[in-house]
Request: fold
Amino acid sequence: MLNDIGSVIPGLTRDPRSAGEPPWIAGQARNDRVGFLKIEGLSKSFVPGKPVFADVSFALDKGEFVCIIGHSGCGKTTILNVLAGLDTASSGHVFMDGREVTEPGLERGVVFQSHALMPWLTVRKNIAFAVESRWPDWPRAQVNEHVERFVAMVGLSPAIDKKPSQLSGGMKQRVGIARAFAIQPKMLLLDEPFGALDALTRGTIQDELMAIVRQTRQTVFMITHDVDEAILLADRILLMSNGTEHAGGYTPGGIAEVVVNTLARDRTRAGLHHLPGYYELRNHIVDFLVTRAHAGTLKNLSGATP
Ligand SMILES: Nc1ncnc2c1ncn2[C@@H]1O[C@H](COP(=O)(O)OP(=O)(O)O)[C@@H](O)[C@H]1O
Ligand SMILES: [Mg+2]
Reply:
């Protein structure tokens, strides 16, 4: 049914390209071919014996835009923090460009769910701080020019010398986005970056993000809970299930399915709804969220009701 809009691969929790191979081989020998970012067998437990998620494996090619979608609490932010090097997994490995990720680095730009700006610095200085860390040898004028370019990109030039307390939530979030782009990272990690924005601003920034990502062939991993946003932006959409208690015990969360988005890549927000296959794709993802994201519970419930 979904053939004309995308292939859906149920139960794909391991990247088949690395099946049977230990992660260190995957991270080294395969780097030039596939898997610019490789995640191998990741699990995270805050409570012993009850991992939030387990056996999470996937890979991103260079220039790919991948979204992960799932209910609150399934572990999306935890995965992103591990990719950012800000948190460690209980087991598993993350490789970027053939090197294991063990700490934060400027080759990865992160936009957090809340803006995470330094409140005592202006917009200009918040971004300059990151730019100077990335290119310590740059003269002041070059830093300034670079900062101004990326502030203009998110439409904030008039506010460049304001402090975060003088900006709206949406403006602060745009500063965070400009800062992540300004360090020109090999990989962008975005945690629901538009969640706090009003619908109008959200649409504008989605368009901006899409234009820049396509121009620069930026590799992006993004968390969202907005199905349309995922369909608009992502080449592939990972559907994540929540860890679930049921009669048979506990099933950790994980990547339940990988949906390949084959709608034309030059799709636009305004035209999305008119594309053939759009509604089937959308319904498929919504159905997952409604009926399958807590599959263990549902099985249990239906089993309990004769
Ligand atoms: N530092 C922590 N200590 C204990 N539990 C945590 C911690 N961080 C996250 N969790 C738990 O792990 C689960 C996944 O959290 P999170 O990754 O933020 O989910 P998501 O981003 O999908 O909403 C949640 O149940 C959350 O309560
Ligand atoms: Mg989160």
DSSP finds nine helices and 13 strands in the chain.
